[in-house]
Amino acid sequence: VQRNPGESEFHQAVREVIDTLGPVLRKYPQYAESKIIERICEPERQIIFRVPWQDDRGEVHINRGFRVEFNSALGPYKGGLRFHPSVYLGIVKFLGFEQIFKNALTGMPIGGAKGGSDFDPKGKSDGEVMRFCQSFMTELFRHLGEYTDVPAGDIGVGAREIGFLFGQYKRITNRYESGVLTGKSPHWGGALVRREATGYGSVYFMDEMLKVRGESLEGKVCVVSGSGNVAIYTIEKIQTLGGKVVACSDSDGVIFHKRGIDLNLLKQLKSVERRRIADYANEHGDAEYIPGGNIWDIPCKVAMPSATQNEINEASARRLVANGCIAVGEGANMPTMPEGVKVFQEAGIAYGPGKAANAGGVATSALEMQQNASRDTWTFEHTEQRLHEIMKEIHRSCYETAAEFGSPGNYVIGANIVGFLRVAEAMLAFGLI
Ligand code: NDP
């Protein structure tokens, strides 16, 4: 805490991992002796830079850009870029730290990183977003490369932004280096299923957690927070597997639609017209828009937080449990506060932490890198099948490892230990670097 003052989200993420590693360090004292934990907590490199750009009226704005290259023991740095006004070093470091373990869990050869800016894309024109992305990449390009650091999207960074960033990278370097960014459009080097992967993957993970308990999504009432990339494809896969999603949200309010969310309308509003979910209720008379509402007040069997960090506090966790929720799967990164996690664990409900449950996005990014490296393109079906197998394997390894270390059913412990051991082993092999 003294070493990294004011970075509360980073402290929270580190504490959550370290609290679970005691049994591992007892079993493998070599990791404590070589100070692997201290080394893992210190990013290999942190880049902070100025991003000047001009809006449509000619006014100049200065934002701050970040890239924290946390750990490259298993492969090139890999992790998304987030554009949101709340972004500062503590958020980027928490996300980068989690990314190390998540990426290790996928079993793919990728290290951990995260980046972004305090730029707010909301209400900006395409031209403004393009000029911002070009300015951002004009600094960041020198740190990237298919063997060095490969960013992707996150909050506020979707296919449009990845396109502008790739265009500027290509222009500056004079290299059509497809493998330098993932989440590209399938028209020019992107992988099919990458757009859907985080949401689909989270639902596959949920399905596995439910199976262990002799349950399935069939006929279950579900609530999915957010209404962005992860939320939309989480809703889609839940519906395919027979569940009913009755609510979604954004930072202004909640949509409750008892009959089940109309996904085509949600996609049209959010992905095509870039409007707000408040407009959803104008199209469906039987849907209710609750401005400033708390989505976790809505009774459900399955909850899938898919918006942002710390969106479920202790009171919301208690409400979910009291309302009969039996499973929580995190599409977002660290959406449940530590006190909320405790509530879920004490209640004995299935709880899938983000670093395991939402790893399908980055896993499919690694599949995109494979396709780029071999100049190949895979079908949707083949790629989705790979994603499904990866999520099943992540679930299996977390589940079995939790049991092996004396905490059966505790996916937090399982995920942290599996991820840590994979990274720690490589770090030890490389010597003191
Ligand atoms: P999007 O930008 O597509 O959507 C984000 C959604 O979350 C929007 O509905 C947004 O509402 C809401 N949201 C964002 N910030 C806040 C906030 N501070 N308070 C309330 N609501 C908020 O992002 P993604 O769907 O890509 O990301 C969602 C989560 O999933 C993040 O935690 C991200 O780190 C995580 N994730 C994403 C992956 C990916 O592949 N995209 C991979 C793994 C994890 P509004 O429009 O009002 O801001």
Automatic annotation (TrEMBL):
Indicate whether Lipid metabolism appears among the record's keywords: no
List the Gene Ontology MF annotations in alphabetical order: glutamate dehydrogenase (NADP+) activity; nucleotide binding
Which intervals hold domain Glutamate/phenylalanine/leucine/valine/L-tryptophan dehydrogenase C-terminal?
191-431
This protein's GO CC annotations: cytosol
One GO BP on record is: glutamate biosynthetic process
Cited CDD domains: NAD_bind_2_Glu_DH (cd05313)
**Which residues does the annotation say bind NAD(+)?**
T198, N229
Indicate the segments annotated as coiled coil, or none if absent.
none
Keyword annotations for this protein? NAD, Nucleotide-binding, Oxidoreductase
Family (UniProt): Belongs to the Glu/Leu/Phe/Val dehydrogenases family.
How would you summarize the oligomeric state and partners of this protein? Homohexamer.
| Protein's name according to its UniProt entry | Glutamate dehydrogenase
Task: Say which species the protein is native to.
Answer: Singulisphaera acidiphila (strain ATCC BAA-1392 / DSM 18658 / VKM B-2454 / MOB10)
Taxonomic path: Bacteria, Pseudomonadati, Planctomycetota, Planctomycetia, Isosphaerales
